[in-house]
């Protein structure tokens, strides 16, 4: 069965913990609790940052954030189980 979005992704993001993904280029997507560059509260939403740490986008839902930014999320069983299998 093929993925209908195959070939449509710009970057793969690998899960490194329950609330964080990292791209091979250094980009990150994780839950944050600070503020946007405009001063709006993030409140635990998912934040996408470029390799230099610059704020790019945020969303309540990680899969919506990933789809909007053409990211492929790759789950990691160890990350989902607190580092154990």
Descriptive overview:
The chain has 85 residues and is mainly beta. The protein contains two helices and six strands, in the order βββββαβα. The protein has helices at residues 62-68, 77-80; strands at residues 11-17, 20-23, 28-31, 46-49, 55-59, 71-74. Strands 5-4-3-2-1-6 form a six-stranded mixed β-sheet. β1 (11-17) and β2 form a beta hairpin. The chain is globular, with a radius of gyration of 13 Å. The N and C termini lie far apart (27 Å). The model has no long low-confidence stretch (mean pLDDT 87).
How is the topology of this model organized?
Blueprint: E1 11-17, E2 20-23, E3 28-31, E4 46-49, E5 55-59, H1 62-68, E6 71-74, H2 77-80
Parallel strand pairs: 1-6
Antiparallel strand pairs: 1-2, 2-3, 3-4, 4-5
The radius of gyration computed from the alpha-carbon positions, rounded to a whole number of angstroms, is 13 Å
Tell me the span between the first and last alpha carbons. Answer: 27 Å
The run of helices and strands is: EEEEEHEH
Helix content: 10-25%
Q: Report the biggest beta sheet as strand number plus sense, adding barrel if it closes.
A: 6 strands, mixed
| Beta-strand percent range | 25-35%
Which consecutive residue ranges, at least 5 long each, have pLDDT under 50?
none
**Helix-strand makeup class:** mainly beta
- Work out the helix count: 2
The strand order across the widest sheet is 5-4-3-2-1-6
Please, what is the average pLDDT?
87
Shape: globular
Strand tally is 6
